[in-house]
Amino acid sequence: MKAHLAKTMEIPEEEKRLENQLCFAVYSTAHAFTRAYKPILDKVGLTYPQYLVMLALWEKSEQAVKAIGEQLDLDSGTLSPLLKRLEQNGLIKRTRDSRDERQVIVSLTDKGLAMRSEIDTIMTAIGQAAGCTLEEMKTIRGLLRGLRSNLTAAV
Amino acid sequence: MKAHLAKTMEIPEEEKRLENQLCFAVYSTAHAFTRAYKPILDKVGLTYPQYLVMLALWEKSEQAVKAIGEQLDLDSGTLSPLLKRLEQNGLIKRTRDSRDERQVIVSLTDKGLAMRSEIDTIMTAIGQAAGCTLEEMKTIRGLLRGLRSNLTAAV
DNA sequence: CGCAATTAAATTGTACGCAAGTGAATTTTG
DNA sequence: CAAAATTCACTTGCGTACAATTTAATTGCG
Question: Dihedral, CA atoms, A60, A63, A65, A70, nearest 10 degrees?
Answer without folding.
Answer: -50
